[in-house]
Design a protein that fits this description.
about 120 residues; mainly alpha; 7 helices; about 0% strand
Length: about 120
Amino acid sequence: MIDVADLAVKHEQWEVGATYAEAALTKATPEAFLADYPDDDYTAEEAAEKADRRKVMGYADLGWAQWNLGNEDEAMATFETAAPLKTVNYLGAADSSLDLFWGKATLASGNAEKAIELLAPNAVM
C-alpha cells in the first residue's frame, strides 16, 4: 500500500495518495511487520522500529497529500505526529520523505526558518 501511496503522491494524485497512505498506516504495526517476514527472527523491539519506519513513510505521504488537498492544518498535524518516529543518519538527514514534504509545506506557509531546519540536512546530502 505504501508503494501505491508513494507513486500517487509522486504523480500528484492526492486523493489516491491519501487513501493508500491511510490504509498503509493501519497496517504499520509490529505484528504486521512480523507477518511479512515469518522466517526472520526479529525481536519485538526490532519489529516495533520497523513498524515505526513504515508509519513515518505513511505519515509523510498522507501529510503531503493533505497539504495539496488544501487541508493545511491537518497536514501539519500529520507531520508533527510523524516527527518523533523518524530516524536520521549521522548528519541529521532523514531517511524518509517526511522532512522534504514537511519542509515544502512549511516554506509555502511562510515559515522560512523552520523550512531551512527541515530541508537543510537532506540538501547537504
